[in-house]
């Protein structure tokens, strides 16, 4: 199997970024309309739902969401005020209202995602392979940007 050139990788990366931006826009629209959330809040609730006892250390949650701890604290404030999550002893806890809202919003997210994939013709085997590849990209190490040639 041959490796992508940098130009091919660039086109693929930009296409992925555009697809992500459009899907996030769709999710923000539907989640906001029906549940008072945006896609980032849903991802936060989803991470807590997947965690043991609905609880994660703050730093681990920030890492799981690929955001800075300070950004996480800002994101948590309105979720705390509405009773969806609680912060305690360096951790974030999913409250029953947050668990319920996540369950309801997951149906909306599933429908939006299903509609987005409907026209692509992706079968279950292809979906599993694509998910594995996307998970690998999300977990891969940051590759340093080539530096410019030194100035003489």
Q: Layout of SSEs?
A:
Blueprint: H1 6-35, H2 39-50, E1 55-57, H3 58-65, H4 69-81, E2 85-88, E3 91-94, H5 96-118, H6 124-139
Provide a descriptive summary of the structure in words.
With 152 residues, this protein is mainly α. Helices cover 67% and strands 7% of the residues. The protein contains six helices and three strands; from the N terminus they run ααβααββαα. It has helices at 6-35, 39-50, 58-65, 69-81, 96-118, 124-139; strands spanning 55-57, 85-88, 91-94. Strands 1-3-2 form a three-stranded antiparallel β-sheet. Helix 1 packs across helix 5 (96-118). The longest helix has 30 residues, at 6-35. It starts with 5 loop residues before the first helix and ends in a 13-residue tail after the last helix. Residues 141-152 have low confidence and may be disordered.
**H and E order:** HHEHHEEHH
C-alpha-based Rg, rounded: 19 Å
**Relative helix content:** 55-70%
Q: In percent terms, what proportion of residues is strand? A: 5-15%
According to DSSP, the number of beta strands is 3
Helical/strand content category: mainly alpha
Uncertain segments are 141-152
Q: Main β-sheet: number of strands, strand sense, barrel status?
A: 3 strands, antiparallel
Count of DSSP-assigned helices:
6
């Amino acid at each position: 199997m041959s490796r992508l050139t940098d130009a091919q990788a660039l086109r693929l990366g930009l296409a992925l970024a555009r697809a992500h931006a459009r899907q996030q826009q769709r999710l923000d629209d539907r989640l906001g309309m029906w549940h008072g959330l945006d896609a980032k809040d849903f991802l936060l609730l989803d991470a807590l739902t997947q965690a043991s006892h609905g609880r994660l250390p703050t730093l681990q949650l920030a890492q799981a969401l690929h955001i800075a701890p300070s950004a996480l604290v800002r994101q948590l404030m309105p979720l705390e005020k509405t009773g969806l999550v609680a912060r305690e002893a360096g951790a974030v806890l999913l409250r029953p209202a947050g668990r319920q809202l996540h369950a309801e919003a997951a149906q909306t997210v599933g429908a939006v995602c299903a509609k987005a994939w409907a026209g692509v013709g992706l079968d279950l085997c292809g979906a599993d392979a694509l998910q594995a590849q996307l998970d690998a990209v999300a977990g891969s190490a940051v590759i340093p940007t080539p530096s410019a040639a030194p100035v003489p």
